[in-house]
Amino acid sequence: ESILYLTGAVSRLGKIEDGNTALDYDPEEVKRKASVLSAVAPVEWKNTKINLIDTPGLFDFAGGISEGFRAAESVLVVVSGKDGIDVGTEKVVDMATRQGKTKMFFVNGLCDESARFYRVFEDLKSTFGPAVCPVVVPYIEDGKAEIYVNMFEYRAYKYSPGGKVEPTDMPDLGSRFEGLREAIKEAVAETSEELLEKFIEGEEFTPEEIVLGVSQGVREGTIIPVFCGDAHNTYGIDQLLNSLIWLAPKADSGEEIGTDVNGEPVEVAVSPDGATAAVVFKTVVGPFVGKLSYVKVVSGKISADAPLINMRTGANERITKVLTVRGKKQEDAQFIGAGDIGAIPKLGDTLTGDTLCSPLRKVALEGIEYPVANYSMAVYADSKDDEEKITQGILKLMEEDPTIRYIHNHETHERVVTGLGEQQLDVVVSKLKSKYNIDVKLRKPKVAY
């Protein structure tokens, strides 16, 4: 929300407790004050487009994390400045490492007097190793963090309410400064054998070696930069955005490995001039607006009336228009280019994880690996009239959230829905009521012995 506000994408800073943030717009999210679905918002900062994908933090909605990972190049893990690392932090970092994504940390909430940035930073280093590298650190005076030091520029910035930022004199960080510089050197030393040798022999790195080492290490995943600030007051957010531009890998670089019609691996370069290939990473189904498929274009571009094939079904998909989506707001777009994200309305048989490609080059891209759901409950309708509607309603919800499973158990004569946890099934019940006007209750499923 703070990034959207600073970049001018929204005109006022929404608050979670007020239920008016741009990306937690679903009624369930407003009610729970937590993300339930992944949501997308493009922003521009210093002539660079950044696609933000906001994913849920609760394990019950981990399907949204899988969707976000499929579309993103970089993973920014938010850590509480008060509570520090939790299980979710470790799970997401592990997932990013396995998938070869760029990783970054943002330590948030430093305006809270009970926040302890340096304790959290030490925990990050002891948990994730010498790859953890401080980029922006706070100077804390009288329990307040209003000055933030950029360790690469060696410059300090003072923040004040109302979004005012001004350069200020470098504060005295004392012995802590040397420790932070040492952490940067350690991280840079991990990026090459030559630099590691230099580090072991106690030689100083040149400023160029540090900047190049960090940018290369971040892109390769061997360095995890740490930023900090307070999103409620927008403190430190500008420095995060500035650093994203030079540290995060660009979406139009690199390639993906897909498979051709014979199942052979093929390289799909991220190129605007290539044949179109895109993956559907998220689906939204509404009772009135129909289906909206979010796509990440890897090669070529998608525009209205461009012929595309769904590689799973073999069917042609007609594109009537393409959209840029920011939260719940939609705008018509001319096209979605290589490396970019957008949405396509009313695709008939296309599901999350499907590949849409040009008939000139048939290639299937990697789909989405979802966590396996194991928490089952039986679904009972409040009225006889709703019994037949339950199946249709749940199948629609499964299009939106493929982690949900559903069976009609003919041995026990029960309809059984399976999810990742209690909260997710609670959302299923709420959405059946709000979207399809079906009243249901959950009970423990019977077991056929």
Structure, explained:
With 449 residues, the protein is of the alpha+beta class. It contains eleven helices and 26 strands. The strands form eight sheets. A six-stranded antiparallel β-sheet has the order 17-16-22-13-14-21. A hairpin with a 5-residue loop joins strand 16 (308-310) and strand 17 (316-317).
Compact overview of the structure:
This protein has 449 residues and is α+β, with helices and mostly antiparallel strands. It has helices at residues 2-6, 27-32, 63-71, 87-98, 117-128, 175-189, 193-200, 207-220, 237-247, 387-400, 422-436; strands at residues 39-45, 48-54, 74-80, 102-108, 132-134, 136-141, 144-150, 155-160, 164-168, 224-228, 255-259, 265-269, 277-286, 290-299, 301-303, 308-310, 316-317, 322-326, 329-333, 335-337, 341-345, 355-357, 375-381, 405-409, 414-419, 440-443.
- Low-pLDDT runs of 5+ residues are none
Number of extended strands: 26
As a percent range, the share of strand residues is 25-35%
Distance between the termini: 52 Å
* Main beta sheet: 6 strands, antiparallel
Strands of the widest sheet, in order across it, are 17-16-22-13-14-21
Average pLDDT metric: 92
- Work out the radius of gyration: 24 Å
User: Percent of residues in helical segments?
Assistant: 25-40%
Q: What is the overall number of helices?
A: 11
**Which term fits the overall shape?**
globular
